[in-house]
Amino acid sequence: MGMRALGSLRRVRHLNCGTFRARLGGPALVSHVVVCEFEHGLALIDSGLGTDDVAHANSRLGVGFRLLLPTLDPAEAAVTQLDAMGFSAADVAHIVLTHMDLDHLGGAADFPSATVHTSAVEQSSATTRTDAAAKVRYRAPQLRAVKNRTSGYSDFPDELFGFAGHMVHDSVCAIPMPGHTAGHCAIAIDDPQRGWLLHAGDAFHHRRAITGQSSGRSISMVETALADDRRQLRENQRRLADLAARTAGPQIFCAHDPVQFRALADSAR
Ligand SMILES: [Zn+2]
User: Fold this and answer.
1) What is the number of alpha carbons within 13 Å of residue 217 lying toward its C-beta?
2) Range of the domain at 178
3) For 82-133, how does the pLDDT look when each residue is reduced to its tens digit (9 = 90+)?
4) Which terminus in the chain has less CB density within 10 A, N or C?
5) In CATH, what number is assigned to the domain containing residue 220?
6) Which residue numbers delimit the Metallo-beta-lactamase domain (predicted)?
7) d(Cα 170, Cα 190) in Å, to the nearest integer?
8) Could you tell me the distance, in angstroms and rounded to a whole number, from the CA of residue 255 to the centre of ligand 1?
9) In angstroms, what is the span from residue 151 Cα to ligand 1's centroid?
10) How far apart are CA 29 and CA 207, in angstroms?
11) CA 137 to ligand 1 centroid distance, Å
12) What is the CA(102)–ligand 1 centre distance, in A?
């Protein structure tokens, strides 16, 4: 079923579906998941860590991931938080991913009836690469859970904010933003209360990348270590910084910045 069958977007909420206590110079990091409530069901933008990831962290996430000090709290899983809000797993019909890294894809396993949307480039990198770096970020058990329900798009015929994009719904647009991974996309959401939001995934990791004096000029050590292509990462941070400086531009946030998360979560209550 295509995502347009969900009807119009009614409400947008923000969940943290995975805290990391590796502080990287600030408060604990979050995994920012956007819940889009449509007339006829829900869609998630990214999915954080899932209940199986938390319960079997060493095998699901790999031992190296523990260096980020994930809290591994089952109460943070999207399915648990949605249940507390009165929704069931079956209400989630679609999941639109920024990319297929373990901390963005994991929660999708808890929503077996959801179609998972990602770029065809990301889908093929995640499922066919066998090098050591790919095995750290793309986890086989998570990929198996969405294998027969992943829809990869390869055309970007639409335009939003002057960027090429793929409208998966009139209110949700995937904008290619490679660098962190080859098929990484930022996902724009037309929030009926706030206007356009842009979930930039891991295109940057701290709000200073797109605001203030250092915007677009340097990428951090962590970003460098995790980047598939540093030149593209840097170039896209420049484009995002330019977009953030526009008066009528979208509100831009990344997946892991706790300050950006808190501001949006509080304002959307
Ligand atoms: Zn991430």
Assistant:
1) 6
2) 3-267
3) 999 999 999 999 999 999 999 999 999 999 999 999 999 999 999 999 999 9
4) C
5) 3.60.15.10
6) 28-256
7) 8
8) 6
9) 21
10) 12
11) 9
12) 8
